[in-house]
Amino acid sequence: MEPLGEPSPRRKKAYFWLMGTCVALIVLAWNVVRFWSVPAAVVMSVVAAVIPPAAAVVANWGRGG
Predict the structure, then answer these.
(1) Does the residue 5 lie in any domain?
(2) How far is CA 7 from CA 23, 54, 57, 60, in A?
């Protein structure tokens, strides 16, 4: 069992990929997609806004406290 202060490597990797996806969605939405479809860019931003809380849940899932 890992110490409470340090998430497992698997959780770190999942958090990294989720947050990387979040950043990529925002960058693509407002630097590329908005030229073709502003509503699609807004939808991408909304999806990106939901990812950080979900990433925090994934990173802390099953930890005692």
Answers:
(1) no
(2) 22, 15, 12, 7
Residue 34 inside a domain? The answer is yes
User: Which residue stretches of 1-65 are H helix?
Assistant: 9-31, 38-60
The boundaries of the domain holding residue 56 are 12-60
pLDDT (tens digit, 9 = 90+) per residue, 15-29? 999 999 999 999 999
Residue 6 lies in a domain: no
Going by pLDDT thresholds of 50, 70 and 90, the confidence category of residue 5 is low
